[in-house]
Amino acid sequence: MPAADVPDEWELPKLRASFGFEDDHHLLDDDSRDSGEFFDVKFYPYNPPGSPPIFAAVSKKHVVLCRITPTTDKETNPCEIIKVIRDDDNGVVNCSCTWTKDAVTEAPYLAISGRDRKVKVYDVVKGILFKTLVGHGGEINDLATSPDNPLIIASASDDTTVRIWSLDPVHAKQPCVCILGGEGHSWNLLSVAFHQTGRYVLSAGHDTTVNLWTLPDLPKEHVDQPIVNYYPHFSTSELHTGLVDCVAFYGDMILSKACHEDTIVLWRVEGFSSQDPPPPASDAPTNHDPARLTRSSFVPPSANPQTCAAAYTRLLKFSIKGCGHQFFMRFSMLQTKGMHPILAFCDTASKIMFWDMARFTGYADFVREVTDPDPDQRRARAAGGPSPQAALARAHPS
């Protein structure tokens, strides 16, 4: 019998075109042999539905903006370079970018950062520098924009802090509205990520620690000094043994990857739910006990380690065998309408790996139907059970 048609949402991404800049250096600059080496790529997230996708690729000194045009001709590269922006500051080495937009006109802006400790915000339509955000005391290795408010940007730096910046005009004189620092990290930061609500932030880096911070209510008027959060509400250095170079939320769960481990880990912070009211700063556990490798405000403390509730649970491990020795290798989540959420990773050998997150819950549902004929029992376990499958189902409800 012929195979039934596969619904579109079950389709994994396919390679449409390979786009290199080896033949496009005339668009860049010939003063550096590394002009075509790119460290970060981000799609513009605010396009109207049906519009051609636009992405930015960031190299040491350049930002290349590309549009993907619809074409059925396999000989035609769908990637069209629409603008090249050059950073003319001396000694600059950029490595990260994130999209935002103007507070009034909604014109697209792109923030970039790197070795010079600055966050530079470009008006990509005009191709000019709109604003420069300064304050970090070390290189900036990652940027993220709040999903809840495109005017809020987070930056992770070698100075061990995360800074929260506001592009709202009311904060023009003092754009840094919050600093996540103090006793959170002890070494260079490599990755920062927002929760979908915009209220929680993940940070990770060289100290093998992953922190979950609760953002305070950010000021709506000018403030002379930023709010400082000294302690995260969750912190662990037990999950990974190597430097952590990529973290992300998946629902209320967390994805993280460390160098030398050959895996991406999906895990959850026990007791954490974005549906609950955000915990106050006073609830954040301190690090007065250096022997505690994991600290959490989401589970009740216990004086007896034998009876202490688990602070986190590993749910799944995704193998990226052979990638362990590579540094600053990032995964990403593709979550778009009409498709299952896809975890994607690519190594230096151009091996692209995809994991359909919905297939894990689909397979678990199938096994439950086969092994448990009672539908009421199945629904009860799927709705509230502590299993990895239940956690995945809550992150991606059908």
From TrEMBL:
This is Uncharacterized protein. Belongs to the WD repeat ESC family. The keyword rRNA-binding does not apply. It comes from the Eukaryota. WD repeats lie at residues 133-168, 182-215. Residues 275-303, 371-398 are annotated as: Disordered. It holds the Pfam family WD40. The lineage of its organism: Eukaryota, Fungi, Dikarya, Ascomycota, Pezizomycotina. Gene3D superfamilies: YVTN repeat-like/Quinoprotein amine dehydrogenase. Residues 294-303 have a biased composition (Polar residues). Keywords: Repeat, Transcription, Transcription regulation, WD repeat.
